[in-house]
Amino acid sequence: MKLIVGLGNPGPKFEYTRHNIGFMVAERLVKDKFSLLPSLKAWKMEKRYPAEVCKKDELVVIKPQTYMNLSGLAVKRVMDFFKINIDDLWVIHDDIDLPIGKIRIRKGGASAGHHGIDSIIKNLNRDDFVRFRLGIGRGKLDKPHGEGHNLHRHEVEKFVVSPFRDNEGGEVKKLIKNAVTALEIASDKGIHAAMNRFN
Fold this sequence. Notes:
Elements: E1 2-6, H1 21-33, H2 39-42, E2 44-46, E3 51-56, E4 59-64, H3 71-82, E5 89-95, E6 103-107, H4 115-124, E7 130-135, H5 153-160, H6 169-189, H7 191-198
Parallel strand pairs: 1-4, 1-5, 5-7
Antiparallel strand pairs: 2-3, 3-4, 6-7
């Protein structure tokens, strides 16, 4: 059984923010894969995890409802319940270190400061799971003379929970579409085929 986790924060306040790109991809994946089902009915809120869950055959897709920094709690509970192996865990998340629209796929490694990934590593006590890293922009200062300067650490959190700009809409739609394609290639042909296509 395969578990695909889209990371994000619950609630309308965060719905279209950069940090929620994992949720957006999970929703698009379900909509594409479960075309015979109304997409809203495909998701079930499961308090025991706690997460929104969509299951069909040997695929489980979840959106943890714990807020980002506690995502690992939901992931571990779902993995324990369905007896999912670490090799079958794929996590979709935003990456501030990648330009908007870029996708990088990797297995294992540190969290690079991402609180959701950090929580999963801590709860599983392992880091050898696959991540689909989605570029949300490098966090440049939006000031007349601020081009090319990275955000300070205390500004990163504010940036990732900010909505995408109107002029980024096209790139975001393409990113979501490409991320779903990457997941489908990885599922059909293996993770290395997806890496070769997108890395």
